[in-house]
Amino acid sequence: MSIKAALTSCLDTFTNLIKYTETTNYQQSLTVPTSSWATQLNRLRKWASDVGALEPGDASLDHILRVPSRLSLHAIRDHIPELLNSIEGIAKEIIEDDIAAVEEKYEGA
Length: 109
Description:
109 residues, 74% helix
């Protein structure tokens, strides 16, 4: 998976989490408040902009890190999508746990 594809998926997940937490009636029950999700999304966007992760063509981080003369950078390129996928997975787990806890709390009420 490319860095750009992994980043796009991660950004979409964070955006959807924020939309969910903004529209839920249970904001006070959430483990992670909406403002914290928004802060992390902004930090991820800033990082992506700083490193050119979403840039097209030769300016892209994928392209820069694929240059064979930079073997150590090539190895790093392979790990960035894994890290982004981990971040995305953790975010999904947190919100799923929150949803389950909120549903359990209100079903028992």
